[in-house]
């Protein structure tokens, strides 16, 4: 007999026409939380991992192109960029030369199709909040849709649960806030529930390449497609070396009990294990969220598990309105798509360069992306022009929200090609053609301005 809270949540989902497979998956995790499951992964049960480097892998060029021709590209596009003050799809943000993330992604795909004579379908996993704007933005690329396939499928949604009692929250001020996405681990449920997984297999595609829409380094190249196809693994993730700025992020490890690769997120790490989490010598690799999976292997795994992949639980406690800390505390049930690495015993990892991992999570990242640290090639691929990407730390009180950030860089990003770090404390507006050299810190108590043409350097 289901508890009253679960019954109410399921009824709410059915009333909203949520897919039945998604409802069953939600119920699975609800019961885990009811029984006290936290999803935590203690340091004592894992070991560090090592892995090969993509740069050392030899891939037959013809086989690589053939692998690309049987690959479908999926971009996670459900985010609104609320942490940057946005209220629409984050991928619509202008990032380079008047082009948004979606513009650049579309042009990358179209270029690759022409260069390698590959169908290379593009699918967006949208949320109910990003679908309309995103499809409207892509309408200008009339050649982008592939016959017989949609441009999108929708991420599922689930009710936020009151921390006290685990019942669905009611929020009349903004009913949309009563719902949340189930994390990007929902991709497998959504692909299966929408029928797209079967459809892709029937149309002759063998594998999927999945990445975040805010990571323009995630390009489906023949080299990586060929490496994955040749290895025969059912599932793989591209990893990068962690740096000091990644100390608080998740990492890969190997579970001692069965030897399987796992992905441990920060939210799954116990307080007493935080030092181990942040030890870059022990846990050296983090996920790019660029992953590859065999479509048939994924279908077989879902079929064998009754449609519920059983990814590790992430129990996220937030407020019902993220912008209102005084609103009631809620539990959001989430899973991470990279955690599927532990579902398949033959999963693998490969270390890639940071050129395949250029995420934009904050306006700090946005400033670097817009700067001369990157050039854009004819294929709309971002080429890093420096050996090390500079560290940028802008005062969150003035730069966190995109609108305020734009006001303070009216003429675009300063030159960061020769910069090691830029730290801005206080309210600074940057003029045109400013150059940062070395390690620069700016501080002001009022509102100040960096004059056009200024050259700011270490110790100056």
Notes on the protein architecture:
A 7-stranded mixed beta sheet has the order 6-5-2-10-14-11-17, sandwiched between helices. The chain starts with a helix and ends with a strand. It is of the alpha/beta class and 460 residues long. The protein has 2 domains: 353 residues, Spore Coat Polysaccharide Biosynthesis Protein SpsA, Chain A, CATH 3.90.550; 95 residues, UDP N-Acetylglucosamine Acyltransferase, domain 1, CATH 2.160.10.10. The protein is built from 13 helices and 23 strands. The model has no long low-confidence stretch (mean pLDDT 94). The longest helix is centred in the N-terminal third of the chain and has 16 residues. The radius of gyration is 22 Å and the shape is globular. A hairpin with a 2-residue loop joins β3 and β4.
What is the topology?
Blueprint: H1 4-15, H2 20-34, E1 46-47, H3 61-69, E2 71-77, E3 94-96, E4 99-100, H4 101-116, E5 122-126, H5 131-138, E6 152-154, E7 158-159, E8 161-162, E9 179-180, H6 187-194, H7 196-202, E10 207-212, H8 222-231, E11 235-241, E12 251-255, E13 261-264, H9 274-277, E14 285-294, H10 295-304, E15 314-319, E16 329-334, E17 348-351, H11 363-370, E18 374-376, E19 382-384, E20 391-394, H12 396-399, H13 402-408, E21 415-430, E22 435-450, E23 455-457
Parallel strand pairs: 2-5, 2-10, 5-6, 11-17, 20-21, 21-22, 22-23
Antiparallel strand pairs: 1-12, 3-4, 7-9, 8-16, 10-14, 11-14, 12-13, 15-16, 18-19
Put the structure in a nutshell.
With about 450 residues, the protein is an alpha/beta fold.
């Amino acid at each position: 007999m289901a508890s009253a809270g679960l019954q109410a949540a399921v009824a709410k989902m059915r009333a909203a026409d949520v897919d039945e497979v998604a409802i069953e998956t939600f119920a699975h995790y609800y019961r885990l939380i009811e029984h006290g499951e936290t999803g935590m992964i203690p340091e004592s049960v894992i070991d560090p991992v090592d892995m090969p480097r993509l740069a050392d892998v030899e891939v037959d060029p013809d086989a690589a192109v053939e692998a690309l021709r049987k690959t479908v590209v999926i971009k996670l596009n459900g985010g609104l960029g609320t942490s940057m003050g946005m209220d629409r799809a984050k991928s619509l943000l202008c990032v380079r030369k008047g082009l948004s993330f979606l513009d650049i992604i579309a042009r990358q795909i179209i270029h690759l199709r022409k260069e390698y004579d590959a169908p290379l379908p593009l699918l967006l996993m949208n949320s109910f909040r990003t679908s309309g704007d995103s499809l409207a933005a892509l309408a200008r690329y009339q050649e982008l849709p592939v016959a017989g396939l949609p441009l999108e499928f929708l991420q599922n949604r689930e009710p936020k649960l009151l921390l006290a009692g685990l019942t669905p929250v009611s929020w009349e001020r903004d009913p949309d806030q009563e719902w949340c996405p189930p994390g990007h681990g929902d991709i497998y449920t959504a692909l299966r529930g929408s029928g797209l997984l079967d459809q892709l297999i029937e149309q002759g595609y063998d594998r999927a390449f999945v990445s975040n829409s805010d990571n323009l380094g995630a390009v489906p190249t023949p080299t990586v497609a060929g490496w994955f196809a040749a290895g025969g693994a059912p599932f793989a993730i591209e990893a990068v070396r962690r740096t000091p700025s990644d100390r608080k992020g998740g990492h890969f490890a190997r579970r001692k009990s069965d030897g399987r690769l796992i992905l441990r997120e920060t939210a799954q790490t116990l307080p007493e294990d935080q030092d181990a989490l942040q030890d870059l010598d022990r846990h050296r690799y983090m996920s790019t969220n660029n992953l590859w999976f065999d479509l048939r292997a994924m279908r077989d795994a879902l079929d064998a598990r009754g449609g519920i992949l059983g990814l590790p639980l992430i129990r996220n406690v937030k407020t019902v309105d993220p912008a209102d800390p005084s609103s009631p505390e809620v539990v959001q049930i989430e899973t991470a798509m990279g955690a599927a690495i532990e579902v398949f015993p033959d999963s693998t990892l490969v270390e890639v360069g940071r050129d395949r991992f250029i995420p934009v999570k904050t306006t700090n990242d946005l400033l670097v992306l817009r700067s001369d640290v990157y050039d854009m090639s004819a294929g709309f691929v971002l080429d890093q022009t420096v050996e090390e990407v500079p560290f940028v730390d802008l005062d969150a009180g003035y730069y966190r929200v995109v609108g305020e950030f734009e006001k303070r860089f009216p003429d675009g990003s300063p030159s960061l090609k020769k910069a090691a770090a830029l730290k801005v404390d206080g309210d600074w507006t940057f003029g045109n053609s400013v150059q940062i050299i070395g390690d620069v810190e700016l501080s002001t108590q009022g509102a100040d301005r960096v004059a056009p043409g200024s050259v700011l350097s270490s110790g100056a």
